[in-house]
Amino acid sequence: MSSTAQRPGGPLTGPAGGRGPRRPTLEEVAALAGVGRGTVSRVINGSPRVSERTRAAVEQAVAELGYVPNRAARTLVTSRTDAIALVVPETETRLFSEPYFSDIISGVCAELTETDMQLLLVLVRNQRERERLFAYLRAQRVDGVLLVAVHCDDPLPAVLAELRIPVVLAGRRGDQEPLSYVAADNAGGAKVAVRHLLQRGREKIATITGPLDMDAARARLAGYRDALAEAGRDEREELVALADFTEEGGRAAMRELLDRVPDLDAVFCASDVLAAGALQVLRAAGRRVPEEVALIGFDDSIVARHTDPALTSVRQPIEEMGRMMARLLLDEIAEPGRRNRQLVVPTELVVRDSA
């Protein structure tokens, strides 16, 4: 193509008739194609909301002018950015203190190693950052999104569906989740943990939950209740303490439980981090683990192997789940419109000294 390709208004020259060609603008592409600037932007970003005739006119103008957007030239043809976003709607404090997140990230990175994909880690801590992310996504700057720590009221999944951006969730928002996800068998894992406590003769089994606006926390609470019902035990609400998935949350909930039911003899916690906090409070209260109070966590993270006593925990293969999420997302990017897939990964109880 000649460096003096014509456009409305004359040849493309540098400033003040400078020595080299200058870059054509989006407005010049729009004028040559006979469309608006926004239409050109939609074509370049791969939006389906453009007729084939209009798309062809814009692509012809792009080729004639030699217009290249900020992304690589290949992206113009494929509508690909070779980037995916891993979005965590949590604070950096929780991101770096909770082994779950580092294991998910490790799995995702391992799966992407042999691809050309770049991974963008995005923390969403407040409404301002959420709006900034929405604007970034609307600009079609990533090919897909992995969403971790999904809360029921999070608006991001709906925005992604509206924008037709491929997305895979770590977990789900509820039983009717329409999007692709990878989740552990949370209810089944909790049920096995509480059965273990019942089989060892524990009578007053408490639980510390995660935040109940997350399906994982609700499912683990449901598994606790199912195991009690299966054993013919009446549920006692005073044995259920609500918390978030933090160590401080575990400490506060354990204090609450001891105040309500001082003679409890077992606690099932919805995460290892919660269990670590609970263990500190039990030790401070002079309650021996496991002799007086048996304790079980969930995740089988590095935390479980470094408490004293070592923590019995429900293992979910978190790193492998990260790999599975990345594989699902790569498939959806490669085959737009393919049917969403939903995978539930089995769990197992790892028995250690705390129970």
TrEMBL record:
SUPFAM superfamilies attached here?
lambda repressor-like DNA-binding domains, Periplasmic binding protein-like I
| First and last residue of the signal peptide | none
- UniProt GO molecular function: DNA-binding transcription factor activity; transcription cis-regulatory region binding
| Regions annotated as coiled coil | none
Q: Which SMART domains match?
A: HTH_LACI
**UniProt keyword list:** DNA-binding, Transcription, Transcription regulation
Region Disordered: start and end of each range? Answer: 1-23
The record's CDD domains line, in alphabetical order, gives: HTH_LacI (cd01392), PBP1_LacI_sugar_binding-like (cd06267)
**Which Pfam families does the record associate with it?**
LacI, Peripla_BP_3
Q: What sequence ranges are listed for the domain HTH lacI-type?
A: 24-78
What PANTHER family does the database record attribute to this sequence? HTH-TYPE TRANSCRIPTIONAL REGULATOR GALS, LACI-RELATED TRANSCRIPTIONAL REPRESSOR
Protein name as catalogued? DNA-binding LacI/PurR family transcriptional regulator
Q: Please tell me the species this chain comes from.
A: Kitasatospora kifunensis (Streptomyces kifunensis)
